[in-house]
Write a structure and sequence with these properties.
single chain; 125 residues; mainly alpha; 3-stranded antiparallel beta sheet; 5 helices
């Protein structure tokens, strides 16, 4: 099945502008063109979903572009693409650990802040 850029925008919850930006940045080399018009396929939408996933988890556009180029070139460089994904996975796991620690600190403050203020104000009265 084929899709227009508007249909892809709707399916991916991205704006048409964002999809065009990704294309301009070299993130969509796999998208076909017919008479200058982008024609998207189901596998293209899967790639766009992966691009969004990588971007939302902090991978810079230049690294996403490199990853895609490795995957598009040939089998010899797929290993390099896999290395990029594995390293990014480690980065995301570290982000999760850091966010979990921050969440624990916030929860601690939520649970203890009322008592701390109560004690503070009772001392001064």
């Amino acid at each position: 099945m084929t899709y227009t850029i508007s249909q892809v925008a709707e399916k991916t919850n991205l704006s048409v502008y964002t999809i065009r930006y990704y294309d301009k940045e070299g993130l969509l080399p796999f998208v076909d063109r017919e008479n200058g018009v982008r024609v998207f396929h189901d596998q293209d939408i899967e790639w766009i979903d992966l691009i969004c996933c990588l971007k939302h988890t902090g991978m810079p556009i230049k690294d996403i572009r490199t990853f895609i180029q490795y995957c598009m070139d040939n089998d010899a460089v797929v290993d390099k693409g896999l290395e990029i994904l594995i390293q990014h996975k480690h980065n995301v796991e570290q982000q999760i650990r850091d966010t979990q620690r921050s969440l624990e600190t916030i929860e601690y403050k939520i649970n203890h802040l009322p008592q701390m203020y109560k004690e503070k104000f009772s001392i001064h009265h």
